[in-house]
Specification:
The chain is mainly β. 7% of the residues lie in helices and 35% in strands.
Length: 165
Amino acid sequence: MPIKVNCPHPSPSTGGRKVGVRLVAWEIDRMGRDLALVEINHGPLPYVCRVAPAGLRPGHCYSIGYDKMQLPAVVRTASIYAGNGRETYTREAPVPGRSGGALVDATTGMVVGVVVAFRRDPRTGRPTTGVYTSHAAILAFLARHAPEALQQPYAAPAPQGKAPT
């Protein structure tokens, strides 16, 4: 099955171009959580969030992805409240379809998690908690499959306008 990636670009003249995309690595654990690393043979892309280095303590975050698997991508506030090394939990539950989207630290613009699921209140059935693959699990995955990616220097992005809600 071919991999299709939608990469936003500020210049409409660059839209719709087909470029090479290659699956570099993919893993699935006993709980059914998966991570994949793909390489896009085009760039530099204007909107890229690098994975945060080890030791970053994320503060305010954004959960980013395609709710209900529809365009455009959404950016929503997310507040981390707990984690267990494999998963990170937020007070805000992502909408179905956002799976695979990023949990991004708002201060650095760096990825600290990947959307996995949400939990429901057992009494009401309402979504109550976001579940993300943890930052530590992402770093371990990259160490196994692309250790060179962990060596890249990072420059913090310049602040840009009003943050999304």
